[in-house]
Amino acid sequence: MKGSIELMKGVEWKYTKVPHALICGETGSGKTFLIEALILGFLKEGANIRICDPKMSDLVFLGAVPSLIDKVFYEKNKMLQCMREFHERMVERQHEFMIKSYGKTGNTFADFDMVAEVLVFDEYVAFVSTLDMKEQRDFFGYMNQIILLGRQLGFFMIAGMQRPDAQFLPNGMRDQFGFRCAMGSMSPIAYGMMFGDSDKAFKDYGKEEKGWGYASLGTGSIQTFFAPYVDKKFNFVTEIAKFFGEEVMTSLN
User: Fold this and answer.
1) How far is CA 2 from CA 69, 151, 194, 246, in A?
2) What is each CA distance from 192 to 148, 158, 228, 245, in whole angstroms?
3) Which tens digit of pLDDT belongs to each residue from 189-207?
4) How many CB atoms lie within 10 A of CB 64?
5) CA 190, 180, 119, 81: dihedral to nearest 10 degrees?
6) Whole-model pTM?
7) Does an H or E element contain 80, and which?
8) Which residues of 9-34 are buried (b: 16+ CB within 10 A; e: fewer)?
9) 139, 128 in Cβ contact below 8 A?
10) What is the layout of strands, in order, in the sheet containing 155-161?
11) Which of 101-105, 107-111, 135-139, 162-166 has the lowest mean pLDDT?
12) 128-154 pLDDT, tens per residue?
């Protein structure tokens, strides 16, 4: 495990130091391609992945990979259960970590050969919008704990959405995402939501230029970003199946 994922040549996301990823962008901006690249990167790191796709758009087809068949969710109750169980596993690891690190300081999950656990939530706002008040309260409670405690324990979140409105990331959670990437053209307000006050001059490269955006990797600076190039013939589902040495199933359960 390197503890980092290459985003583009010379640029890495050191997720063990700068945890959690917030990926924003309109349809067609390259947001989903970037999330899929991160999923593949984490799988190559040996991580366990769970994926929630409430709109049943692109990521849901990863459920056709045999090794991921029980790790891709799109139904509301299943996604709520996924979040709850992800949090429960983190709490279990917290107790295990406490025993192993007793008397030592500064350790993380990597020091004890613990596997990284990753929860991917694409179209996050679309999902949260379907929750009633109690469900939102529970969901945000779990998420807040994961965001705050996850780095040391090896539990990471990737959240994809069109715009990071504070009502969907309450209690300052938005600022706890170490890797923040705005894909494609966004309004000044949306850039402010993503990166806070900044004197960065955000250039619009236009819709013809694919996969561009701006990213913050926890260094305090905002840089121009180009997501990994993906040829139209490239199929992430097939590529991830190859990673596991498997064939893609012909239908989803």
Assistant:
1) 26, 15, 27, 25
2) 22, 20, 25, 43
3) 888 888 877 767 777 666 6
4) 21
5) -30
6) 0.91
7) helix 76-100
8) eeeebbbbebbbbbbbbeeebbbbbb
9) yes
10) 72-73, 48-52, 117-121, 155-161, 21-25, 179-183, 212-216, 222-226
11) 101-105
12) 999 999 999 999 999 999 999 999 999
Helices (DSSP H) in 101-235: which residue ranges? 124-128, 133-153, 188-195
And the tokens for 39?
Answer: 């999923």
Average pLDDT, the chain: 88
Q: What is the pLDDT of residue 188?
A: 80
Is the dihedral angle over the CA atoms 202, 167, 15, 207 positive or is it negative?
A: negative
* Crossing angle of the two packed helices 76-100 and 133-153, in degrees rounded to 10: 30
Pairing, β 212-216 against β 222-226: antiparallel
| Backbone phi and psi for residue 204, each to the nearest 5 degrees, phi listed first | -95, 115
Per-residue tokens: 41? 């990167």
Residue 109 CA to residue 154 CA, distance in Å, equals 5
pLDDT single digits (tens) 168-187: 998 888 889 999 998 888 87
Whether residue 43 is predicted with pLDDT greater than 90 in this model: the reply is yes
- Kindly report the length of the chain: 253
Contacts 24+ apart (CB under 8 A), 230-237: 230/33, 230/37, 236/33, 236/36, 236/37, 236/39, 236/40, 236/62, 237/61, 237/62, 237/64, 237/65
Q: Which two tokens stand for residue 21?
A: 């990823």
Residue matched to tokens 């305090």: 220
Say how far apart CA 165 and CA 100 lie, in whole Å.
39
